[in-house]
Amino acid sequence: MKSKKLNEEIIIKELDNGLKIFYMPKQGFTKKYAVFATNYGSNDNKFVPIGENEAIEVPEGIAHFLEHKLFEEPDGNVFNDFSKLGSYVNAYTNFNQTAYLFTCTDKFYDNLKLLVRFVQNPYFTDENVNKEKGIIEQEIRMYEDSPGWKVFFNCLRGMYHNHPVRIDIAGTVESINRITKETLYKCYNTFYHPKNMILFIVGDIDFDKALEIVEKNQREDIENYTGSIKRFYPEEPKEIKNQFMEEKMSISTPLFNIGFKDSDVGYYGDKLLKKQIVTDILHEMLFGESSEFFQKLYDEGLIDNTFGTQYVGNKDYGYSILGGESEKPKVVMEEILNYITKLKNEKLSEEDFNRIKKKFIGYHLMDFNSLEYIANTFIKYYFNNTSLINYLRILQEVDFKDIVERFNSHFTSENYTLSIVCNR
Hints:
One of its GO terms (biological process) is proteolysis. GO terms for molecular function: metal ion binding; peptidase activity. Keywords: Hydrolase, Protease. The chain folds into 2 domains: about 1-230, Cytochrome Bc1 Complex, Chain A, domain 1; about 245-424, 2-Layer Sandwich (Cytochrome Bc1 Complex, Chain A, domain 1). By secondary structure, the protein is of the alpha+beta class. The longest helix has 19 residues, at about 125-145. The chain has 15 helices and 17 strands. It has a 6-stranded mixed sheet with strand order 3-4-12-5-11-10, with helices on both faces. A 5-stranded mixed sheet has the order 13-17-14-16-15, with helices on both faces. A two-stranded antiparallel sheet has the order 1-2. A hairpin with a 2-residue loop joins β8 (about 70-75) and β9.
């Protein structure tokens, strides 16, 4: 995969077991980065396991639980092994994927061997699974005490009726206590199959040497399968569930999230990536720090520099979140609705669009200096059937008409939820 405009290339190798390995050369970089990821996240709770014919439904939070357990081995914890090599190791689970990563400046090949080996060799026992339940229960309770976490998931619960995106990634105390080693192995054997995973490495690396290490450390007892994993998600209405969500906690300044539920779903690939780019540009035009609206609310003391926006989009769900701190979150909501109505009558600024589009192109080019950005963004786009290499081309193709159409369909006075966390 090559991009002349970016002056970047990605080398691809597929192993016999279906694992795809991607390598982006970065000559002269001292840092090296690798991420081993599976197309499996907290939303994937109903599926047909490999080798079976019937769908099963597993406890919420099991993908996150599985991520935790993979670091444990019969003779200790993998974190210690990476520490001895002088590298940084971590992992994360989100709604749609789980990833294991390391970064280092030295001993890259030893780190790579360790990464590939531990992710492909699960060790679950009744004893260590029960022990982990207590650890994750503490983590869940910690998040329940986090105002930022609560305001966000309350917003999702307000927008969504049935979709699992409304459920905390870690699950609930009740759901994780239903997890068994047998269920963990069933999820692992299905979703951690090499055909459902990719390995992305980036840096100044001898790819042939890296490839040899990966090939030599593949499990040989993996059951093959044809086709794709069958996953099931509940039907989700286009309408939001609740327009207002409020929770009281011990905080000094109220937090708010305003979620606009995306009804334009059902596709992925380049079309999904374009929708994300268009929405991101629109966010910056409407609510960015350089917008008149931001300055107006900031000068009036309704928002501060914690205010920001985010768009998250996948094949079966999507939402925009506007949030921050404010003493008067309901007034902020009214101002936003009035602002949207006004713009639909007076029209958006094409001049703002052209300026921000150029800004996005510049930021995108700068992002290729970050190995972490390259690797983690690549896997996110890959699992959505597109590529990081396509981003610049699609961004350059976006025109003002795309922005106007998206604005009119996505920001309405019916598809929003206001979530507030305020002082008791």
